[in-house]
User: Fold this.
Amino acid sequence: MITELEMGKAESELELGLGLSLGGGTASKIVKPGGGGAWGERGRLLTAKDFPSVGSKRAADSASHAGASPPRSSQVVGWPPIGSHRMNSLVNNQATKSAKEEEEDGKKKAKDDETKDVTKKVNGKVQVGFIKVNMDGVAIGRKVDLNAHSSYENLAQTLEDMFFRSSPGTIGLTGQFTKPLRLLDGSAEFVLTYEDKDGDWMLVGDVPWRMFITSVKRLRVMKTSEANGLAVRHQDPKERQRNKPV
Amino acid sequence: MDLRLPSKVLEHILSFVDSNEDRNSVSLVCKSWFETERRTRKRVIVRNCYAVTPEAVARRFPEMRSLTLKGKPHFADYNLVPDGWGGYAWPWIEAMAEKCPSLEELRLKRMVVTDECLEKIAASFKDFKVLVLTSCEGFSTDGLAAIAVACSNLRELELRECIVEDLGGDWLSYFPETLTSLVSLDFSCLDSEVKLSDLERLVSRSPNLKSLKLNRAVSLDALGSLLRLAPQLVELGTGSFSDKLDQEAVSKLSQAFSEMKELKSLSGLWDVLPEYIPLLYSVCPGLTSLNLSYATVQMPDLLELLTRCSNLQKLWVMDLIEDKGLEVVASSCKELRELRVFPSGAEGLNDTNVAMTEQGLVSVSEGCPNLESVLYFCVQFTNAAMVTIARNRPNLKCFRLCVMEPFAPDHKTQKPLDEGFKAIVERCKDLQRLSVSGLLTDKAFEYIGTHGKKLRMLSIAFAGDSDLMLHHLLSGCESLNKLEIRDCPFGDTALVANAAKLETMRSLWMSSCCVSFGACKLLSQKMPKLNVEVIDEHPLETRPDSSPVERIYIYRTLAGPRLDMPEFVWTIQKNPEIGVSHLAIK
Assistant:
């Protein structure tokens, strides 16, 4: 047996980081309070207890969740193992189904517009799923799963982790190795913007979340200096041209 | 007397040897055979783009006309490989442009392909004919336009499940009027609408067009006119199948389908409405391949369709087919070789209220004697079902069972699924690919190690109890080539003890397991012919040797450490600051 292997807490449980966030979001990041070692904050190895619908026959040594809700099997990254094209298609179907059901219920909602947008997916391209995120100065974009987020705070947290905690994307897409980007502390340097269906770039955060996710096409973490003049909603066409990102 | 075969004679003989496996054997006979073989090989396949450098490949095979490359590990399909990991096509395209300008065909899978790459292809290879991109990303429709406009002898352009930055449908309009050589066009993964008139003109001036896969944006009405222009199609991927058509349009479409005497493969069918299914009846008897996995049609609307597909060899469906539908498949599709059943519920794996269970697969295994490849997503399964399936179909070559509920036991006996998988590996002696799921103990892997002698690829998730599991696999599965594991509770001892095995395999992927940092370092130190990549988004410099890493990807290579690793990929060569292993492993 490995001598130095730390067996972790009293519950003899190994803590390790799950493949979180990048390329696909997990809705619930399991946060362990405190804890020794560098691993206190990361997730843990999932066991049967995390999937409440299954009787837990496995070793009952998984710790209490300390308040964090166990992830549903659908919230685990990359599970079930379905390619992203298929996953997006399923999500669209689900959205159509629920939208149809809502309409059938005869409910008149203020969000009627949104659901219509989502159902108009035959020729439209609204994919409530993975969208691209680019950051100024970072050559390679990332993808984030909007479905795995429920609010702007959620999304901001994920993006912060993606781009600020670890500096990825140091390689130009031509395969040349470029210097790592040293990001400054504090997000005041950068703002989060998005391109909507009409091709306009707007500041994130002004419309209700649900409206946002049906109209967003892609995200960009922009330098604050460049974002000046980026109007919130109505933009005069001349300004729009100037603000069109590279 | 010189008893060597004159190279001209050997060359002539080799012109009949197509299989690269055979050619690899030929090249091992002696130096002169190696030389003759390498000078005559036209089709080169590199299944791990980091196993060898592009320059080495170009040098060895100067007459290369077709190059196939694979980049990212398979689990990248499920978002387990962070963006920016690698798999760049550029260095290969650049090298080939310089050294093999006669290259005609490029097939890339899971690679990052930029518009720059596509422009380079268009500019460098004068006789370029075939571009097939599978699960690639990084390019936009602008890159496609570059290919369209410049490749005057283009035969195949296929985009399969790619992630493309869609800037509109204009790219299609860039095919010049002089291009008449098109044989295959697949743009099914794109979103934007292309101009119908341009598409129609392209189709009408392509007499050799055999395969056309449209995207969802192509309407049903448009489909009609396209089919009338290309009744010779062998493969068709429709667009959206749900517009409301008037009676005349429907009968014209029906007529168009019935004119398609050569059609063997049908796919697309997004949003197909039940009332349009009868339109397909006329082509069913000729079909050998049917992909309904995007068709949200429920039972019993599928029944009539399936009963007519008596020559079907490949069927992809969603679980909306239910056990009932699979029974019909079992009785109607006697030629079936490959079955894939995908889940229809997105978020709610537990919400699937379709009546599809293990019984569906059992029926097909009973009724279809040629069934050899299975991919089956199901909420739960039983050992008894697997035993029956194994008994019915010892000829299975590929068995991928995805029980969607992790750790789900046999739902009738509540026991682990060990015995079921045991039956599969014991009976199916030619099994080459296996994916396991559900509740599994180390015993299951003992069985796999004991019996899975022909197993080449194995995928495991949420399984096993200890290091023994990995040890059984690495020491038992003689033919193991690719092993991918996620969320299993073991690592170090088995890995280090079986280090030599890793050099006989193409690759090993482990994520969210218990492989310690120290073990990775140790492995790197012991095995210089392997690239041991630790893919971890959190800094490693201060990590103790005992702490687990997020992901490891280990592959054999002749090229040494790669030069394009992002920050979150750590190797002892790139990151000497992480030091040597202090792990004491008995």
